[in-house]
Amino acid sequence: MNLILLFDEDFIDNDRVRLGGRRARHVRAVHGAQIGDELRVGRLNAKLGRGVVTALTDDSVEMTVTLDRPPPAPLPVAVLLALPRPKSLKRVLHAVATMGVKRVVLLNTWRVEKSFWNSPLLQPDALSEPLILGLEQARDTVLPEVTLRRRFKPFVEDESAALSAGTRKLLAHPAATSPCPHNVDCAVTLAIGPEGGFIGYEIELLTSYGFEPVSLGDRPLRVEQAVPALLGRLF
Ligand code: SAM
């Protein structure tokens, strides 16, 4: 935890917070904090700053906080991600939040296993857990927006143009003949396939909406490897 992320309910006054649970245990056990120590803090969807420990009990920590710095710039990318299996999804959400992605659409495609849509991980609270851990890792405060789209064709036909307007549209596909560009100087909308990859029809439809198929090479990577590799290449 490189940042103690603060939520509205933590504030007991304008500049005072009281934390319990996981964060309080971390501050005590990992930081070994004492009264008067200064810690990096940030308020969810707001500024970064520092907190000075004013009180400690077995299960709570109080701090006076000064929030005076903006969070880091977001990565100019929206990720359209074919819904992966829950274990991978958790890892991918953590990775995208850490790397500064602020928009994720979890999308159904032909090869997404239908049962994945019933995962409890898709409940809002469960979805935000790996995102929050990613923000704490990256010293960021801005929670990525994650939306679920269970129908591929209507999403592409009715929504993808508005979502990707003004961006370069890329479709990650190991067999593509064009290499994935690197150090792009524009915003990107990046489509990433499921475990079995996109089917031909999906590639054709996305291509007809302006998505360029690009590859990182012949080796098919797992989704949780492909996402950071693609983001690292692009930005
Ligand atoms: N057998 C599948 C195929 O050949 O498409 C592999 C799918 S891979 C596990 C899941 C997704 O990660 C792919 O659909 C693609 O979007 C992305 N991906 C994985 N390896 C890639 C690579 N070498 N180049 C581009 N994208 C890749």
Give your account of this protein's structure.
The protein is an alpha/beta fold and 235 residues long. Helices cover 31% and strands 27% of the residues. The chain is built from six helices and twelve strands. The strands form two sheets. Strands 1-4-5-6-3-2 form a six-stranded mixed beta sheet. A hairpin with a 4-residue loop joins strand 4 (38-43) and strand 5. Helix 2 (86-99) crosses helix 3 (124-138) and helix 2 runs parallel beside helix 6 (223-234). It is elongated and about 60 Å long. The relative contact order is 0.15. The model has no long low-confidence stretch (mean pLDDT 97). The structure holds S-adenosylmethionine. S-adenosylmethionine is lined by residues 172-174, 192-193, 195-198, 215-217, 219-223, 226.
Précis, in short:
This protein has 6 helices and 12 strands. The protein has helices at residues 21-29, 86-99, 124-138, 152-164, 200-208, 223-234, and strands at 4-6, 11-13, 16-19, 38-43, 48-56, 61-69, 77-82, 103-107, 145-149, 168-172, 188-192, 212-214. Helix 2 (86-99) crosses helix 3 (124-138) and helix 2 (86-99) runs parallel beside helix 6.
